[in-house]
Design brief:
The complex is a heterodimer of chains A (113) and B (114).
Chain A: E1 4-7, E2 10-14, E3 19-25, E4 32-37, E5 43-49, E6 55-58, E7 61-66, E8 71-76, E9 85-92, E10 101-103, E11 107-112
Chain B: E1 4-7, E2 10-13, E3 19-25, E4 31-37, E5 43-50, E6 56-57, E7 68-72, E8 75-80, E9 89-95, E10 104-105, E11 109-113
Parallel strand pairs in B: 2-11
Antiparallel strand pairs in B: 1-3, 3-8, 4-5, 4-9, 5-6, 7-8, 9-10, 9-11
Classes of the chains: A mainly beta (113), B mainly beta (114).
Chain lengths: 113, 114
C-alpha cells in the first residue's frame, strides 16, 4: 500500500518568514492534493497537482509536484498567523473510477509573532 | 465545489452505545468516503459508499462496527457501534472531486467516548 511521509512533522516559524513542507511517497504519484486543517475541524482544499513538474500558486502558497522523486513540496512565503494549522498531503489511488485518498502524516505549523 | 453539512459536530458518548453521523451534500455525488482521524494521527479511510450498493470497507474496518447507509446521491450516514474509548476520534465524510476543486470534506465530528 502507498505511504506518504511528510517532513517536518512540526514547524514553528516566525511571522513573515518563508517555509517549506515536503511530502514523499513510497509509490508513484498519480496526482497530489494539499489540504489544511484547523485544530479539530474539517479539511480545507488548497491545491491539486495532476502531473509531474506541475506548479501551482494561490496567494502566498506554492505547491510543486516532482513525480520522478515521488515528492511534492508546499512553500509558504511571508507567513502569517492565518497560515497556522496542520497541512496534509493526499495521493489518489491509481484505480480508475474509484479514487480514494491516502493521506500523509501531517505537518503542524505554528506561527509566532 | 460541493458543500457538505456534517452532523453532529461533536458528541460525548457512553461506552457500549452507538452514534450515527450524517452527511448531507448540496449536489448529487457518485461516491462518498468516510474517514477516521485518531488523536494526533492522519486520516484513515474507513469505507467508500456508493448509492444503491453495499459500502466497501478498508482493511481493519468491518460493517458490524461501522455500518454505513447511502439511501440517495446526496446523503450518507456512518454509525459507530458499541463504542469504546478507542473509538474517540474525528470522523469526516468526503465526496469525490468535481473539476479542479479536489475532494470536499465535511467539517468533521469530534467523538469522545467515556
Amino acid at each position: 500500500s502507498q505511504e506518504l511521509e511528510q517532513s517536518p512533522q512540526s514547524l514553528i516559524v516566525q511571522e513573515g518568514k518563508n517555509l517549506t513542507i515536503n511530502c514523499t511517497s513510497s509509490k508513484t504519484l498519480y496526482g497530489l492534493y494539499w489540504y489544511k486543517q484547523k485544530y479539530g475541524e474539517g479539511l480545507i482544499f488548497l491545491m491539486m497537482l495532476q502531473k509531474g513538474g506541475e506548479e501551482k500558486s494561490h496567494e502566498k502558497i506554492t505547491a510543486k509536484l516532482d513525480e520522478k522523486k515521488q515528492q511534492s513540496s508546499l512553500h509558504i512565503t511571508a507567513s502569517q498567523p492565518s497560515h497556522a494549522g496542520t497541512y496534509l498531503c493526499g495521493a489518489p489511488s491509481p484505480n480508475f473510477g474509484n479514487e480514494k485518498l491516502t493521506f500523509g502524516t501531517g505537518t503542524r505549523l505554528t506561527i509566532i509573532p | 465545489s460541493a458543500v457538505i453539512s456534517q452532523k453532529p459536530s461533536r458528541d460525548i458518548c457512553q461506552r457500549g452505545t452507538s452514534l450515527t453521523i450524517q452527511c448531507q451534500v448540496d449536489s448529487q455525488v457518485t461516491m462518498m468516503f468516510w474517514y477516521r482521524q485518531q488523536p494526533g494521527q492522519s486520516l484513515t479511510l474507513i469505507a467508500t459508499a456508493n448509492q444503491g450498493s453495499e459500502a466497501t470497507y478498508e482493511s481493519g474496518f468491518v460493517i458490524d462496527k461501522f455500518p454505513i447507509s447511502r439511501p440517495n446521491l446526496t446523503f450518507s450516514t456512518l454509525t459507530v457501534s458499541n463504542m469504546s474509548p478507542e473509538d474517540s476520534s474525528i470522523y469526516l465524510c468526503s465526496v469525490d472531486r468535481t473539476d479542479s476543486y479536489g475532494y470536499t470534506f465535511g467539517s468533521g465530528t469530534r467523538l469522545t467516548v467515556v
